[in-house]
Amino acid sequence: MKNKIITTLSAMMLTIGAFAQQEATFSQYFFNPMYINPAYAGSRGIFSGTMVYRAQWVGMSGSPVSQSLGMSSMIPGSNIGLGLEFSNDEAGPLRNTDVSAIFSYHLKLGEKTKLAFGIEGCMDNLDVQFNDITVQNPEDPSFMNNNASAWVPDFNAGLYLYRDQFFAGVSVKNLLQPNLGMQYDNGNGSADLYREYYFTTGFVTRLSDNIGLRPSILLNYVQAAPALLDLDASLIFNDRFYIGAGFRIDDRIGITGTDNALILSIEYDVANRIRFGYSYDFYLSQNGNYTNGTHEIMLGWDLNSTKTRMSSPQYF
C-alpha cells in the first residue's frame, strides 16, 4: 500500500508540468540560511558553513531525503562575500541536485546595521528513474522513456538586512524559470521550474542576563501551490544552547492531506566555533499515522584565521 502511495505521488508530480515543492524544505532554516537567500553569504564575517541532513516521512518507502552543504566567507578588507552551495533532494524516482556559486555585497547602513545584496549562479539537475516506478500497464507511453536527466543553468537572488539581534530577508529562486527538457502528454506539456519566493525575519530579545528569546517567521511561495508559513521561537541559554518550537502551516497536499506540523529543535554552540543541531517534525494531520515524522541533523562551523573565537554570539 505504501509503495502504491509513493508511486501515485511521483506520477502526479511528473504530470502537472511544474513541481509544487521544487526545492527541498528544511525545518530549521537557521541551520543554513544561505540555502534560501544568497545575500546571507559572508554575513558571519568569517569562514563558516553548515551541513544538513533531512529525512522526511521516516518509515515510508521512497520518502524524501535531502542534504545540503553551504560555506561562505567575507573577503578580508572588503565588503564582498563569496559562497558555495550544494544540495541534493530525492523522493522516490526523482532526484534534484543543485551546485552553485554565490557573490554578495554588504553595504554598511549604520554603526551595526548592514544590507547585503546576493546573486547565485546555479546548475540544476533533475533526474527521473522511470524504471523505479511500478505501473499497472508497462506499455503506458507516459512511463516508457526509461530514465531521463537534464542539467539547466539558473540564478537566485536576495536581499538581507541584518544587525547583531535582528534580521530580515527576501529572496527568489529559479529566476530564469528553466525548462527541464522533459515532456509529457505526448509532447503537449513540459516540466518547468517556477520562481520560488521567500521572506524571513526574526530578532532576539533578552529575558534575563542568561536567557534570550528568538522569534522568527518564514514565508515561502511558489506558483501553483499554496504558501507555506513557519512560525518559530527559540529560547537561548547563555548564548550557547538553543531550544525551540515552531508551527508550520502547509496546505500543500501531502500523503493523506495537508502537511501542517509541529517542529521541535535544539542547537548547541561550542565556543562560537562548532554548532550541532537537531529538529523533529510531528505531523498534525493523518500523515503522522503513516510515518515516524521528519528528522533533521546539522553540523556547522565558524573558523577564524586569527584562531580566536568571535567577540559576540551569532544568533542568525
User: Please, how many helices?
Assistant: 1
Query: How many separate domains?
Result: 1
User: What percent strand?
Assistant: over 45%
Supply the CATH superfamily name. Answer: monomeric porin ompg
The CATH class: Mainly Beta
Helix content: under 10%
CATH domain fold name: Porin
Overview of the molecule:
With 316 residues, the chain is mainly β. The protein has one domain: monomeric porin ompg (Porin, Beta Barrel), CATH 2.40.160. 4% of the residues lie in helices and 53% in strands. It has one helix at residues 2-15; strands spanning 47-55, 65-74, 80-91, 94-108, 114-129, 147-163, 166-173, 179-184, 189-192, 196-203, 205-206, 211-222, 228-237, 241-250, 261-270, 274-283, 294-303. The longest helix is centred in the N-terminal third of the chain and has 14 residues, at 2-15. It starts with a helix and ends in a 13-residue tail after the last strand. The model is unreliable at 1-20 (pLDDT under 50).
